Amino acid sequence: MIVAERKPFDEIKELIQGYKKVLVVGCGTCVAVCLTGGEKEVGVLSAELKLVNKTASDPASFGEATVQRQCDFEFLDELKDIVGEYDALLSMACGAGIQFLAERYPEIPVLPAVDTVFIGVNKDVGWYEERCKACGSCALGMTGGICPVTMCAKSLFNGPCGGTNQESCEINKDQPCAWRMIYERLAKQGRLDNIIKICPPNDWRNQKPQTLIQPGYEERKTAVE
Amino acid sequence: MKSGSNLEKILTAGHFAFTGELGPPRGSNIEAIRKKAAPLKGMVDAVNITDNQTAVVRMSSWAASLFAISEGLEPNYQMVCRDRNRLAMQGDILGAYAHGIRNMLCLSGDHQQFGDHPQSKGVFDIDSTQLINMVKTMRDEGTFLNGQEIDEPPKMFIGAAANPFAEPFEWRVYRLAKKVQAGADFVQTQCVFNMEKMREWVKRANDMGLTDKVYILAGVTPMKSLGMARYMKAKVPGMDVPDYIIDRLKGVDKKNQADEGIKIACEQIDEFKEMKGVAGVHLMAIEWEQKVPEIAERAGVLPRPQV
Ligand code: SF4
Ligand code: SF4
C-alpha cells in the first residue's frame, strides 16, 4: 500500500489560509489502512481545524467527505454535488489521489494535508515500513525477495558495501543491512549463484511519468468502437 | 600495459607497491593541496585523491588530481557512485584521462546522511562493481556503457575497494571475486587493524586464485592517539579495531602514543611484505601527511623504485 503521514498542523493551517469554506476529503483505501487519511482521520483533522477557527476573528468553516478511492474518477464523481459549495479542497489521500481529485475538479484549489512517504507494508497497527521504490525493473527474483533498491541505503545491485556495521546498515544501527539479509536468505535457499554473477546496471524506468495499458484495455476499446 | 601508469608499472614489475592518500581542501585553496602533496613526493607510487570523502563537499577529485600531477605526484583518482550518474561519470572519466590521469579507484561512497548536506539526493545510478565494469568496457572495448564507440577511449588502471572484515565475512571474498570479474586491476582494502581476519581473507583469496588476477594493496592507517583508535572503533562504519590495538596504545605514555601507532603500522607493513597474495600497502595517514616520509623510512619501503 501507499503510506502517507499527516503534515504538521501549522503547515496545514498555512496552506488553507484565506479560504473560507474548506472540504476535508479522505480516502478509504491505503491512507485509511495506515491511519493517516481515512474517515476517522478526516474527522480528527476537521475537528482540530474547527477548534482553532472558533477563536479566529474571521472563522472558516469545514466540511468532511471520504470516498472509497481518490485515485479513481468513479469514486470522485460522488463529490460532484457538494464541491461547488467550497472554495478549497484539503485532501488526505496519497499524492496520486490528491492529483486525481485536482484533475477531476480543476476549477477548485486542491491542497495536500499529508506527505506521501512510501510504498510499504503493514508491520502492525500503526507501524509501516517501506519496501518498494517502483523502480520499474523488479530485481526481487535475483535477491531472494528483498529489494536492493529500497532496503539498501545505496541501492546497490552487487552489495554489500564496505560500511556494513556487524548486522546493520552503515546509516543506522536499527536498519539491518539489506545485502546481509539477501546473502543469508539466498544461502539458506541454496541460491547464492544468483548473486555470484555480476548484476548489470539497472534500467531506471521510474525517471519519467509511466503509463500502463493492459492488453485487455485495448481489446475492450476496439470492441466498443 | 593497460594504462602505463606508474602504479601499474611498479606492480607488474613485481615491486611491493606503496600508495598514499590526499584529501582535497574544503575550498579552492591550492596552497593547501601543495602543503599536503610536498611530504608525499618521492615517498609513494601513487596518491589517492578522495572524492567528497565522508560525503562532505571538497574540491572535486579530478581537479585535485590535476594539481597532484603538477606537484609531481601520480594521482589515483577516486570516484564515488553517490554523487553522479552514468553520464556524468563517463564524461568525467574522459576528461580525467585526457588530462593525464591514469589510475582510478571506483567506490560506492559513504551515505550522504552523515555528510555536510544530509538532505541531498543520493544518485546511486550504478554501483561500484558496475562502475568498475564500465571503466573496463571504456578501456578494453572502447565503448560507452551503451555500446557506442568512444573517440579515443580512456585507458585507466582500475582500482576497487574491499572490506575484508565486514559481515557477512564469508561473502567478502566472493564480493572481491565479483570486482575482479568486473575488471578490477588492483584492490585497496579498508584500513586493516584485525590482522587475523586479514590473513584469513587473503588466504581465501589465494585459494580462489584471485590474487593471481588482481593486486591487493593492504590498507594501513597509523593511529595518532588512543582517542583516534577509540573513535575509529566506535564511530567509523566498517572499521574493525580489535581490543589489543587499543590496549597497546593504552599501555604507553600519552606523548608516546603517536609513536606507538607508527610502530604498529610498521609492524603490519613488515608482515604484508611477506604475506603471499599481498602486492603492496596503501597508507592512509589521515590528516597526517607530514608523517609519511618518517613512516615510509621506518617501514623500509624507501627509496621507491623507478620504473
Ligand atoms: S526492485 Fe524495483 S520494483 Fe522491485 S521491489 Fe525494488 S524498487 Fe520495487
Ligand atoms: S550497509 Fe548494507 S544496506 Fe547499508 S548501504 Fe551498505 S550494503 Fe546497503
CATH topology of the largest domain in chain A: Rossmann fold
pLDDT < 50 stretches of chain B: none
Proportion in helices of chain B: 25-40%
Taking the alpha carbons of the first and last residues of chain B, their distance comes to: 13 Å
What general form of chain B does the structure show? globular
Mean pLDDT across residues of chain A: 96
Q: What about the largest sheet of chain B?
A: 8 strands, parallel, barrel
Quaternary structure: heterodimer
CATH evolutionary superfamily of the largest domain in chain A: Response regulator
Task: Outline the low-pLDDT stretches of chain A.
Answer: none
The total of helices of chain A stands at 9
Order of helices and strands of chain B: HEHEHEHEHEHEHEHHHEH
Please provide the ordered H/E string of secondary-structure elements of chain A.
EHEHHEHEHEEEHEEHHH
CATH architecture of chain B: Alpha-Beta Barrel
As a whole number of angstroms, the C-alpha radius of gyration of chain A is 22 Å
Query: What ligand species are in this complex?
Result: iron/sulfur cluster
The N- and C-terminal alpha carbons of chain A lie at a distance of 35 Å
Which strand order does the major sheet of chain B show?
1-2-3-4-5-6-7-8
Helix content of chain A: 25-40%
CATH topology of chain B: TIM Barrel
Describe it.
The complex is a heterodimer of chains A (225) and B (307). Chain A folds into 2 domains: 2-118, 3-Layer(aba) Sandwich (Rossmann fold), CATH 3.40.50; 135-203, no CATH class. In chain A, 32% of the residues lie in helices and 22% in strands. Chain A has helices at residues 9-16, 30-33, 39-54, 73-76, 95-104, 148-151, 178-188, 193-196, 215-224; strands at residues 2-6, 21-27, 61-67, 88-91, 110-112, 114-124, 127-132, 168-169, 172-176. The relative contact order of chain A is 0.12. Chain B is of the alpha/beta class. Chain B has a single domain, classed as Alpha-Beta Barrel (TIM Barrel). In chain B, α6 packs across α7 (195-207) and α9 packs across α10. The longest helix of chain B has 18 residues, at 257-274. Classes of the chains: A alpha/beta (225), B alpha/beta (307). The A-B interface holds A 153-167, 170-171, 177, 180, 183-184, 192, 196, 198-202, 204 and B 81-82, 86, 108-111, 113-114, 122, 124-130, 133-134, 145, 161-163, 166-168, 171, 174-175, 177-178, 181-182, 190, 237-238. Residues 152-154, 156, 159-161, 163-164, 169-170, 177-179 of chain A line the site of one iron/sulfur cluster.
